[in-house]
């Protein structure tokens, strides 16, 4: 199977500043229909509360993730890993079918870049005005416009940084503390860093992230084949091109799609909208630049369901089943048992052998809970310590226990025996094993 070469042709490599011309059309409408709900979700979800708790919060202090009324802990890391793996495979599958649709419509770098470009056009004017300003120098009015642009960029970057931080620190506490200057030094440094990175990435660096920092652009051709739908220039209709360069002017990465598939192309479709408008004006059919596959253009037939995409579908299905099974079997109770290593065992005056254990219990559910503690696995063993523990909300219950057995009842010649702690709350029960040192 012949692969599409990923060319690396772009005027941005020469260091020339790109003045992106904003254009309307069906692909840009699609991008807005996808990106605006994502933006609203990003800025809005941090403020949603469920039963007095932030709906989505990665709490470092509590060592847990609050997710729409449920709680997840460090022991649930395989779930997060599974979600990320499935998301990555889904991205690869989408890439095999429709190219870099994620990059052009939903990638945060692209979404924020288009947002900053919109601010730039509102404050400084369209692309040709901005280019003339850079070539001929700035007037006083233009300097004020540029200052206002950067001020709005910084304001938007700060709002982005505060919202992002609000998913790790409760946002209803973070915002007033930040506005009043009462945030901790660590939080302040983090907010400044995030603001600066957002400002640089979306405002100043822009396409260079896609060109040099994004690894996806470097290995995209591995997932592409002749049946992959991408933004494509139909060379069989090259005589219809009038060299207006509008496709280059609207490209956020500054490439010329007529040179073929390139690593910098993010499949945003801006060049398609621009070219279609030109074709309409010169009474030519649309589709000189189209979102299509090479095979479709060449033969008129390009199947979506093929060996590669079916394989992706099977892998995703299996991964979802495995992840669902893990979630269904997860415990809300997490138990950690630590033996007293200062004194492995001791004997009492009534000839009992005892071991000491420290028990830590976390309950990943809203509210405080009482759990029952018992032991099993060792005959005639006696548990010294409270029979129930109160696990505080968002906290850990810690308690010292002693397990004692009549020395005469222990197996001769054995130096250790298996023992299990049983922690139960309602219908949930967790059994954790440890060892009992005999010390003969």
TrEMBL record:
It holds the Pfam family Fer4_18. Residues 229-260 form the 4Fe-4S ferredoxin-type domain. Keywords: 4Fe-4S, Electron transport, Iron, Iron-sulfur, Membrane, Metal-binding, Transmembrane, Transmembrane helix, Transport. PROSITE patterns: 4FE4S_FER_1, 4FE4S_FER_2. The chain crosses the membrane at residues 33-50, 77-98, 151-171, 183-202, 310-328. One of its GO terms (cellular component) is plasma membrane. The keyword Transport applies. GO terms for molecular function: 4 iron, 4 sulfur cluster binding; metal ion binding. InterPro entries: 4Fe4S_Fe-S-bd (IPR017896), 4Fe4S_Fe_S_CS (IPR017900), Cyt_c_oxidase_cbb3_FixG (IPR014116), Electron_Trans/Redox (IPR051684), FixG_C (IPR032879), Ig-like_fold (IPR013783). PANTHER family: FERREDOXIN-TYPE PROTEIN NAPH. This is Cytochrome c oxidase accessory protein FixG.
């Amino acid at each position: 199977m012949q692969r599409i070469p990923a060319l690396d042709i772009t005027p941005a490599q020469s260091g020339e500043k790109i003045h992106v011309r904003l254009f309307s059309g069906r692909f840009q409408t699609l991008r807005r229909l996808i990106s605006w709900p994502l933006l609203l979700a990003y800025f809005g979800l941090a403020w949603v509360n469920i039963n007095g708790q932030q709906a989505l919060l990665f709490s470092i202090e509590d060592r847990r993730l609050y997710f729409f009324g449920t709680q997840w802990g460090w022991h649930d890391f395989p779930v997060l890993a599974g979600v990320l793996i499935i998301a990555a495979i889904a991205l690869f599958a989408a890439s095999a079918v429709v190219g870099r649709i994620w990059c052009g419509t939903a990638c945060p770098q692209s979404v924020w870049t288009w947002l900053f470009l919109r601010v730039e056009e509102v404050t400084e004017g369209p692309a040709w005005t901005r280019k003339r300003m850079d070539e001929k120098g700035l007037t006083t009015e233009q300097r004020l416009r540029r200052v206002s642009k950067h001020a709005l960029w910084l304001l938007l970057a700060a709002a982005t940084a505060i919202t992002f931080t609000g998913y790790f620190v409760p946002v209803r506490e973070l915002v007033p503390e930040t506005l009043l200057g009462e945030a901790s030094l660590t939080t302040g440094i983090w907010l400044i860093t995030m603001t600066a990175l957002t400002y640089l990435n979306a405002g100043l660096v822009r396409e260079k992230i896609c060109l040099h920092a994004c690894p996806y652009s470097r290995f995209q051709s591995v997932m592409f084949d002749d049946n992959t739908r991408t933004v494509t220039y139909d060379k069989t209709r090259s005589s219809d091109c009038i060299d207006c360069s509008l496709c280059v002017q609207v490209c956020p990465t500054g490439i010329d799609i007529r040179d073929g598939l390139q690593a910098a192309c993010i499949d945003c479709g801006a060049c398609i909208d621009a070219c279609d408008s030109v074709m309409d004006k010169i009474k030519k059919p649309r589709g000189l630049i189209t979102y299509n596959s090479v095979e479709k253009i060449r033969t008129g037939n390009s199947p979506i369901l093929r060996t590669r995409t079916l394989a992706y579908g099977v892998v995703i299905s299996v991964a979802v089943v495995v992840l669902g099974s893990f979630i269904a079997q997860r415990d809300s109770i997490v138990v950690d048992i630590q033996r007293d290593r200062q004194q492995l065992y001791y004997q009492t005056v009534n000839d009992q052998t005892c071991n000491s254990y420290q028990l830590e219990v976390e309950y990943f559910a809203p509210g405080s809970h009482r759990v029952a503690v018992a032991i099993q696995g060792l005959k005639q063993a006696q548990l010294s310590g409270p029979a129930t523990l109160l696990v505080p909300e968002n906290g850990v219950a810690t308690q010292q226990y002693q397990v004692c057995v009549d020395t005469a009842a222990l197996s001769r010649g054995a130096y250790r025996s298996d023992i299990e702690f049983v922690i139960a709350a309602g219908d949930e029960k967790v059994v954790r094993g440890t060892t009992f040192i005999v010390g003969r």
